[in-house]
Design brief:
The protein is built from 6 helices and 10 strands. The chain is of the alpha/beta class and about 220 residues long.
Length: about 220
Amino acid sequence: MKNIFYKKKWKNYWEDYYKIDVAPKESSLFAKFCLDNYLEEGNTVIELGCGNGRDALFFALNNVKVKAVDQCEKELSLLSKKASLPNLEFVCDDFTNLNDDNVYDSVYSRFTLHSVDSCGEDNVIKWCSDHIKLGGYFLIEARGQNNELYGKGIAVKGEKNAFIYEKHYRRFINLKIIKKKLKQSRFKLKLIEESNGFSPYNGKDEKFLRIVGEKI
């Protein structure tokens, strides 16, 4: 019951966030990096937690076939009307418990793994292992334990490295643990980098993780 309560609570948080329409509209630097280095025209990609759809739209406009998943029904309804493209589909679903049997060239997860608990992370990695084609990629950008917000706010009882700060849940990724999980789930680690410069925003330039796992 606790997990259901928190899922609903943070879903409501994001519904309110997108309602006030302050999220950036331009595609992220990570989306551009992935398109330049790991995605090809005609690839199939599923995005876990698409938010306001900016990266999904960017991929679709560059001839990638995209399924964009999120739980914010109202935002997805607006996106489906505003960004109507034959190679872009918006689906309302919980990306930690996907009802999707398709196999994709890549899975794209930007700022989403740190928004779920460790059990959710395990579910995502297992699903990705089962639904990414051989030679395809699991593309991750997230907050790690060297991120500037780590330790700020109220620690979440019963969870490691998770905090509520500015009314926002974040669980900071343990690099050693996620590397182990990915390797055990048949991913070859092509890129592991933690640096500033990945996602500057509003005059701030925090340190983020980038991980690319190739399905083997």
